[in-house]
Amino acid sequence: MVAQDVVVSFRSTLWFWMEYVHSMMDQGFGATTRKINSRECDGKLPDLVRARANYYNDFCNQLGVAPGDNLYC
Predict the structure, then answer these.
(1) How far is Cα 48 from Cα 66, in angstroms, rounded to an integer?
(2) In this structure, are residues 35 and 29 in contact, taking their beta carbons and an 8 Å threshold?
(3) CA-CA distance, 38 to 27, in Å (whole number)?
(4) Which of 6, 13, 28, 43 has the most other CB atoms within 10 Å of its CB?
(5) What is the pTM of this model?
(6) What are the Glycoside hydrolase family 19 catalytic domain coordinates in residue numbering (predicted)?
């Protein structure tokens, strides 16, 4: 159902973010990554973590905002 309906998909995403991730925002990008994709963290998939942080840095640069600290989980 989530994959078939954009409204349900958006609402599910927003619910997950507010329920599990929003409270971690002040702890940096790495903390939000840990909440969403914890299997990548703690040295398990360092190339993937590095690539994710690089994408985040690129987006921040394009938006003209600072990425902050704690980019890695």
Answers:
(1) 21
(2) no
(3) 15
(4) 28
(5) 0.79
(6) 8-18
